[in-house]
Amino acid sequence: MAMLARWAAVVVRRPWWVLGVAFLLAAVAGTATSGLTGRLEQGGYEVPGSESVRAADLAGEALKDRRSDALAVYTVPRGRSVDEPEIVDAVQAALRELPPSDVAATTGWWEQPTLRSADGRTGVVSIRLRADERSEQLSAWHEVEQRLRGDDARGAAHGVDGLTLRFSGWAPLGAEVNGQTEADLVRAEMVSFPVLLVLLVVVFGGLVAAGLPLVVGAVGIVGALGVLWILSGITEVSVFAMNVVTLLGLGLAIDYGLFVVSRFREELRRRTAARAEANGAGPSRATRREVAEAVTIAMRTAGRTVLVSGLTVAAALSGLLVFPHGFLRSIGMGGIAAVVVAAIAALTVLPALLTLLGSRVDALAFRRQRPETSEAPADERGWGRVGRAVMRRPAIVTVVVVGALVLVGTPFLRAEFADFDASVLPKDNEVRLATEHVREQLPAVATDGAQVVLVGRDGQAPDEAVVQAFAAQVAEVPGVTGVAPAGASGDVVVLAVQVEDDPQGGPPRETVTKLRDLPEPRGVDVLVGGSTAALMDSLDAIGSRLPWMVAVLAGAVLVLLFLAFGSIIVPVKAVLLSALSLTASFGAVIWIFQDGHLAGPLGVEPGPIEPSLPVLMLAVLFGLSTDYELFLLSRIAEGVRAGQTPKDAVVRGLRHTGGLITAAALLLAVVVGAFASSGLQFMKLLGIGMLIAIAVDATIVRGLLVPAILALLGRAAWWAPRPLARLAASVSLEPDQSPRPTGAGVSEMPEPVGPHQGSES
Length: 761
What we know:
The protein is of the alpha+beta class. The protein has 22 helices and eight strands. The strands form two sheets. It has a four-stranded antiparallel β-sheet with strand order 2-3-1-4, with helices on both faces. It has a four-stranded antiparallel β-sheet with strand order 6-7-5-8, sandwiched between helices. The C terminus is likely disordered.
């Protein structure tokens, strides 16, 4: 592309200026993001404007003086009671020491009987923080928790033997999730960078070349987190966006660096070898002109692939923006920022470093690199041999692979969903244990039930007789185990409803549906909220917006790949194969995380999954799978443009890119694997799901299925009508000449182009 060639000329002339600006911006971003976690939000899973959200807002306003931000859960051994004067006095003394600037009110079990378990061994103190903003509440909660825990080395709460203290509620859960998120990031960086360096050294055969993608990766992470810091000041950003941004920023930046550095070294070796052969001399260091030419060609070829890839992955992530969930929208925006920054870093920092290094890019090498010759047999080794085998039976390969992927994807048909709660934490986490204990021993305190909110239409509170009559109707609904008044304010009355079974399961959803179907009393609006209702509203919103997401995602990818290759068949094939690959990945995730297969070795806790996870995986993995498709097709397209038969072009393209795609997938798998070991079930599922998808896509799909289908399609794969062909050429996302037949017929091919035009990685 002419644009990239002009930019390469700028970088070659002013490499120090480019590096100076890039590292200055990275330093500013790194400084700004030091306190990023405190600016991020825990929520965003609810649907703004839905019935459950409106019910929660009205109930929160009506019960604001009774709001509970945290629960201090005290337990004693069997044979003792939390009502013992020693225990009550110790707890009350500890509560008096809490800072009034942070704590608005506390209510203990000695004041409210519902805060004491039936056996008397558990007592709860409800804590309402003074701050209203969640970020401020989290900051205040750290101080409150430290005050209550104290520093008793024996582990006895407030110095009372046998008394244990754990915490439940929103603020403790948020603090634990934040802490786990930060720990995951640190571990990912500490584990992945050394492993990535070793793998890159093996791939490149030298230490200097191996370090360049890591530099780009580091700049990509810092830059993406800097953009996330800016976004957090404008809109709500989920704390999990930080993990996803780091994963994408590091993984893609390293992949992009791998392809650009590989192409630069290939071009530089070719030029120095040609000069040495012409002069009858031995190998020598590249001249400044040769370095500049190699940088320019690398930017026009691998750089073009990086640019189109970045646009494609960003377009796939933009599909998340159609959902109303703040969680999905924030990850979409953060992911787009990560991809764009990774591509920019690869197209700025990397060519500047390559210009300065020149032949020294091969310094500290332990393996001699030799220029490849076009006369080498395409099937002499590795992926070339695989490609030649596929060409002999492309129809059989297609049927077998498609059948296997569809079969693996069938478990997704029985997927079950649950909302975000304390179950995302590890089994032995104290906050999760306390939450489960409260749910079992004090069901009236747990927040898992339903809320029925009655609002008077005339601005007056509903008549007491009307409320009692409606409460009686609610109590008769199958699945309801208890109804109690929770409070009232102005024209709002709130009823707390207990439901049987798991609040997120099927029977409670039926109960909520029946509650919503109850006829409203005259002059009263009824809203049903609670965790089950919120899950139902979320599933409805996802189901209604999913077709729009698919349209945005597939449409953007179809357009970009058409402009990149000038074909209408290749983009359609890419979308269909990516969907097939993702189906298999979704099925494997359900098989593991819901059905419990391999749960022990993987450290997985079987159960329903959060409904937004498949949507997030769809956007991320669709972009990544199209990314690998782009790398492979670019080299195959070069062969077709050079006049090779379709099968030869596929075999040679697979031979040239198969190893690099495998290496790129392995490097990305290392990054993803660091997050797959997360203590949060949410991130573990995303990480393992991505590992499966990457493995399937980089081997079975790109190594077998894509070559087989291209062999079956032949030259028709590159066909486009003449008007569309001219449009693609005018936009200039494709190389100088397209690898397709014209609209007149599949036999008409453009003249072969030079050996470097449009070549990739």
